[in-house]
Amino acid sequence: MLTITHINYIREIYFAEGKSISEICKMTGRNYRTIKKYIETEDFNESEHKAKRPNKSDILRPIIRKWLLEDRARHHKQRHTAKVIYKRLKKEHPDILDVSERTVRTIVKEEKEKIYGSKKAYLLLNHPGGEAQVDFGTFYGYEQGGLKKFHELILSFPKSNAGFAVVTRSETRQAVLEGLVTIFKHIEYVPIAIWFDQMSSAALRTKDENGVLKAADFVTRFSMHYGFNIKFCNPNSGNEKGNVENKVGTIRRNLFVPEPIIKELDSFNQKLLEDCDDLNKEDHYRLKEPKTLLFEQEKSLMVPVSKIPFDTAKYETRKVNKYGLVEFSGCRYSASPRYIGQFVNLKIMANEIEIFSKDFSEKIAKHPRLFQNGEESIHHIDFIDVIKTRPNALKYSGIYTLLPEAWQDYLQILDKEAFREAFNVLKMILLKDDMAFADKVLKETIKHDSASPEAVAVTYRRLKENRMIYETVVDLPSDLPSYEMDTSQYDRFFGGNVL
Known about the structure:
The protein folds into 4 domains: 4-122, no CATH class; 125-304, Ribonuclease H-like superfamily/Ribonuclease H (Nucleotidyltransferase, domain 5, 2-Layer Sandwich), CATH 3.30.420.10; 314-377, CATH 2.40.50; 388-468, no CATH class. A hairpin with a 6-residue loop joins β14 (352-356) and β15. α4 (60-71) crosses α6, α15 (416-430) runs parallel beside α17 and α16 packs across α17 (453-464). By secondary structure, it is an alpha+beta fold. 40% of the residues lie in helices and 17% in strands. It has 19 helices and 16 strands. The radius of gyration is 32 Å and the shape is elongated.
């Protein structure tokens, strides 16, 4: 089993440099069928089985290539020579250095030709077709009546100057990858290479055992699945990412002014991508042709988007505490009380978190993902059936603290039967509304000197009705003519006398 780094190297020299399978076999020493297998692979989702430890000698060439790539950001007088690379390999990787210095010199020469010989083809100032740039921007929008900060993930194509955007709630790795998949599906193609700005790439990079920055294995697997090369911009190199930086501002000014109203994020993003299509109908600033037309021509250099979905989620294990909650990234999420003290699995996505049992046989809960430290997402209804069967233990349980203060005080004055009825009413409310509304219902009931569970239920139904026809004050015009009613006909009909 090859490492992700080595598989990526094989695919890169096959698709990007045009090497034949036979040439790759000679370069890597691998079997023809093995090379062919990884070149034809389309699904790079992680297997459920752990991969065997690879032979370290297989990563000699990728290590040399990585050091040479890092040299491009250094002063030319402080770059690796073949002799220095051999010494470094001997010092840092003596267990895999089973070739002579002459062989290392040959590998260095070959890798330099690949890197510097093709450098002009990837120089962003020349805007080669089929490549894209990624970056984040921020803006403010309204959600649930409040003004909130959102992030715009921008994918721009410098050759045609086309740009696409999706809105995210964060700049996490899941937000980047899910956003890219949404854009890929919309345009139905994937660029051959994507350049990541330092900000957007922060969630995608990691360090190897020597402290050298590289793309995380999971992100490399993602890039191979969709068929593009990952390229990181150099620090303080605005010329490498100027197109996407301009596109961040352009889309913000054109599509986020005034502040948009976001009711449901997925549907908002679909409409946003359609608006980007309309924005791309404008002429290219220099070529004076519609960007849409240029982008369609550019698609011939890209690859069709894979029909096999890639799972971009992150999975972590957490223990459910005595309150029935699990913690992740400073926030708390409720699980079923049945799992208190047990380990559960979290499926962490850009905007949601799902909680599963340890063996993934049961989906326990689903929550919106929170980002402010100390926030909680609690499905109170999960705890109600447990509490109402053990009223005497309520005050001493961690679950008690999850209830609003008004409900805590209210439950203390009820007898056992009324206690159960009160929780049935609370469950009825939570099936359609949240705990904040339940708190409002109880306070409204108490305000009218009522305390029975039946009264709480009546108050809830009353507050849910459309009360506009009862509460609206109608202002009539002041200049209406006077009108006198004659009721004598009614008197004669009933045969009575006028009083």
